[in-house]
Amino acid sequence: MLKDQPKEKHFTIFYGDTGYSYESIMRPYFKGSSGITIEDPYIRASHQIQNFIRLCETIVRHSTIRKINLVTSFDENTNVSEMRDSLDELKQSLLEIDIVLDIKLDQNLHDREIRLENGWTIKIGRGLDFYQKPNSWFELGVNDLSLRKCLETKVDIFKE
Amino acid sequence: MLKDQPKEKHFTIFYGDTGYSYESIMRPYFKGSSGITIEDPYIRASHQIQNFIRLCETIVRHSTIRKINLVTSFDENTNVSEMRDSLDELKQSLLEIDIVLDIKLDQNLHDREIRLENGWTIKIGRGLDFYQKPNSWFELGVNDLSLRKCLETKVDIFKE
């Protein structure tokens, strides 16, 4: 049975790498978890919220998670009311399939960390925002992030 | 060996259905094909070209296809120069991974049809554009089309 268990991992995504999606990195660790907590201070701007929606889509398709906790932050440049509206629309669409999204704002938050209720922790140095901006919005990788070039970042996955 | 062969299929996608992506519909039929021809008069507007990019991303990830032929059309409302620029950017990004995209414009084209070089034909009544527009750009399914609600259309998949 042990061979089916996901493993502790520590690796670097290098600048220009492709082949990384939230699914490919996180899916093995979702197994048996009913809840997930995402701490990431940068789920504010529109493209950052889109990244978070992609993570939620991955969770919906590939896990049995029913409760998502998001802790994020903002600063004086954030349009907080727009940010809240966008996240509320996402919350509503999750609620329609019986998944609860709880959102907390914490201005002291700095580190990025994703914790599964089953004990696994996934730390990505850059959080969800580790992709390069495409050169054009009509190239491969604009929709499928596993074809998008990455920025450099480290990934640590371990169980407490 | 026959049980591994993809099968002839005729089915309806109903209005409001979810669970359909280009991958889920077409992937089994890509096997053993090095070329694909997409005839679809509506690869013009920006969101239609994005659909076509999604199909190309699916081809890149899940097939050994090296040659993509697109036959599409335009009318007096089409910004043909913008359309050409967008498709050229896609063509360039495919060329970087050694896949050739050939684009032809045919004003007499009406029907939608996708033909694989291995003999399979995939006809979707609405072509690639069988998804509902989301109510919000911050809901599940904005990125992952398998979570997006569909319009009604028929699908016929057969081998000549």
Chain-wise SSE layout:
The structure is a homodimer of 160-residue chains.
Chain A: E1 9-13, H1 22-30, E2 35-39, H2 46-62, E3 67-72, H3 80-95, E4 100-105, E5 113-116, E6 120-124, E7 153-159
Parallel strand pairs in A: 2-3, 3-4
Antiparallel strand pairs in A: 1-7, 2-5, 5-6, 6-7
Helix pairs in contact in A: 1-2, 2-3
Describe the 3D structure.
Two copies of one chain form a homodimer. By secondary structure, chain A is an alpha/beta fold. Chain A has one domain (9-159): 2-Layer Sandwich (Endonuclease, Chain A), CATH 3.30.870. The first copy, chain A, is 26% helix and 24% strand. Chain A is built from three helices and seven strands, in the order E-H-E-H-E-H-E-E-E-E. In chain A, strands 1-7-6-5-2-3-4 form a seven-stranded mixed β-sheet, covered by helices on one side. In chain A, helix 2 (46-62) runs parallel beside helix 3 (80-95). The radius of gyration of chain A is 16 Å and the shape is globular. At the A-B interface, helix 2 and helix 3 of A face helix 2 and helix 3 of B.
